[in-house]
Amino acid sequence: MTPRPLSAEPLLRVENVSKYYPFSKGVLFARTLGQIKAVDGVSFTIEPGKTLGLVGESGCGKTTTSRLILNLETPTAGEVLLEGRRIHDLGGAALTAFRGKVQAVFQDPWSSLNPRMTVGRTIAESLIVAGWEGPRIAARVAELLDQVRLEPGHAELYPHEFSGGQRQRIALAAALASRPRLIVLDEPISALDVSIRAQMMNLLKDVQAEDNVAYLLVAHDLATVRHMADQTVVMYLGKVVEHAPTHLLFEDVRHPYTQALFSAVLLARPDQLAEGVVLTGEIPSPLSPPSGCRFHTRCPLAMPRCSSAEPPLREIAPGHRVACHLYDVGNGSVFGQRTRGGDGG
Amino acid sequence: MSHENILEVRDLVTYFFLRRGVVKAVDGVSFDLRRGEVLGLVGESGCGKSLTALSIMRLLPKGSARTVRGEVRLGGENILTRSPGEMRKIRGRRMSMILQDPQTSLNPVFSIGEQLREAIFRRRRGTKAEVMQAAASALRRVEIAAPDQRIGQFPHQLSGGMKQRVVGAIAISGEPEVLIADEPTTALDVTIQLQYLKLLKRLQAETGMAILFITHDFGVVARMCDRVAVMYAGRIVECGPVARIFEHPSHPYTQALIASVPRMSGTVGGRLATIDGQPPSLSSLPAGCRFAARCAHVEARCRDAYPPTVTVGAEHTADCWRLGRL
Which of A326, B43, B72, B234 is the S-S candidate for A335 at Cβ 3.0 to 4.6 Å? Predict the structure, then answer.
């Protein structure tokens, strides 16, 4: 159906993408005071059928990044390519086709479903847009409900008749309807109850295996990312600070910020308590990010050059990229060994 | 009964009386909170943990909710029979509460200093300068930098973590014996959450207050609590020391909950253990064990009658029929 991309081309390529929002004061004679660099020079790729985890705290730019990929925002600089085509140049039928290929499931299943539409109608929405008709739609809706472990009869019901976990499965069914290649999952389980989360994670993995769909998983819970993602990108104030295959990252965390994030994870086992790197201070405002390395104001290992020069994202081991002066060449880098090793338990 | 318990809750029952029926949100909850300890109250949304806290504070939403039965003994005295005026003297001085969302706990139109001053003034009269000085030192105690400048600022000028610290400062300003913290870090970022938990621990060590810590996160329990009570559908189903509950969870619900959380170490891949189904509706609870419909080990008697509370170890109890046989 779609033109086959070159075999070397990933499903999604995010290339040096930035998104700045002007920050102004006043209404009639508004003055632009500066720019909020929500996303600043971010690059990564996602392969078909794989999951990329995007991790960071509030204000790190993970939501803006996912909106850029969904083509809901236009980048200030850089480009996003899906199957080798620049998504922000698309229009008309090509844009409609793009919307079918890239779908989203949002955090809150209480607000992401239309309360006035039956579940069947919500799921059928993208099929109607694609020009499908009556019986074919009904058959596909039944198939989708089955895929997300709901009953065919549920198509006639309204969202308020379902629990949070079921609603999130309905949102997933609606996202899957157009057979997307990529689904942006924005904190897909954090609004769900603990006992329901595992069901949703298992379902997401099953669906990925069945449909070979890729996921961009935006999450703050590292254990979830470890369970779900093949690659992990860690962001801080609009920048990528560390990017590695998930198994590598969890064995050998390099960036001090990532180390702090790992230390902040509250392990559900009292015997695994570890102090590690504990951050002090607040997350700086993205309006006036610190000079040099944006993390230097909270970094326990900051050096003089961190406040003046911005560290580039550099590959320090195969596939493992870190933006930190600790790993500068000639630094005799022995830093960054994690204080806490996996205990294999 | 014992001097070491500062708070004793006995058979607490709080229902919502609605036109469509009675919602049994808290249905026979009993536990002790010892002096100087942190007791975790864990459960999913709708299990009644927040309503238990509001029943203890006697801050139930006006109208439909009512505590029908039970006792809440603070230092040996049942406070459920106290008058509203007497309760106002207890709240803020002997018992305080921190809620989940600092955005709604603080009044947006008053400065931080004024809100602190109100709390301090209730306890201790003094000149304006004295009270302001007490307010500044209260902020310093919760590790807010430059308190003299912060005191004149309004809630919207503070970050979420800082607002929650101010709420904490207000809560402990009356030097309460009991602090009830209802998911105080759920709205905070992970690195800020860790800071806040460490702060609460330090304040607890300094003041010797007891904390009832309500959460849905076992990670927070492991970090914060000495003992933990697990709640399901309006009742406490298991209670014991934190290390024991993690190593030897006895109730099938606790076992399943702990097993379903993804790990930070060990092998990845494969499927997570799940708990099928959903909690029962609180307006039509089953006669027997409330977890029976989702339990992997269910037997006939589980559906017929609520199981007894069985002692399964030192200070460790669980409500389950299977345990009685062992």
Answer: A326
